[in-house]
């Protein structure tokens, strides 16, 4: 008789909370900074070989948190599939009620200036600004929870 157990869907495995994943020419790593916030850092190149994997990696690791800081400051190349991944992440976060913010390297910022000229994606200028915006969103959620 086959064993029974729990299958994890869209929830991070607690045993891999700090696990890094090599995917093509990039490395994805997740860090739990506090009970509400997840930080995902990406180093290397985001291209057609790993853009979709980035979206799925973020989706897997945001199931239990209400905030995401996506740090792409160490990305050396950012192709159009990277933008597709960011759009996917944006939709996922919206549907999952996750506040998120993005930090980008010059290649990321360059592509966003072309593909997102209206600034719809939540790009922050620096780490301190990103944390301040996430903290502000957390305070708004808290006020809304007490008011409603």
UniProtKB/TrEMBL annotation:
It holds the Pfam family STAS. Residues 40-86 form the STAS domain. It comes from the Bacteria. InterPro entries: STAS_dom, STAS_dom_sf. This is STAS domain-containing protein.
